[in-house]
Amino acid sequence: MAGITVGDPAPNFRLPAPGNKEIDLADFRGNRHVVLAFYPFDWSPG
Predict the structure, then answer these.
(1) What is the pLDDT at residue 22?
(2) Residue pair 17/26 in contact by the 8 Å Cβ criterion
(3) What is the mean pLDDT of the chain?
(4) pTM attached to this predicted model
(5) Which of 5, 10, 11, 45 has its CA at a distance of 20 to 30 angstroms from the CA of residue 31?
(6) 1 in a domain, yes or no?
């Protein structure tokens, strides 16, 4: 998979959600702003 650069649309992905549901990024396209934040685990280097 090629990397993305600033300004590129995020690739679609699906994540588990409470209540045995899933959230799909495509459900938000064109409707809302979405902020993607990546938080490294406390025990990971860097």
Answers:
(1) 94
(2) no
(3) 81
(4) 0.54
(5) 5
(6) no
Q: Is residue 6 part of a domain?
A: no
Cα distance between residue 39 and residue 42, in whole Å:
9
10 found inside a domain: no
Of the listed ranges 3-7, 23-27, 29-33, 36-40, the one predicted with least confidence: 36-40
Of 29, 39, 32, 31, nearest to 9 (Cα)? 29
How far apart (Å, rounded) are the C-alpha atoms in residues 40 and 26?
24
Number of domains in the chain: 1
Domain that holds residue 22: 17-46
Give the Cα separation of 12 and 36 in Å (integer).
12
Count, residues in the chain: 46
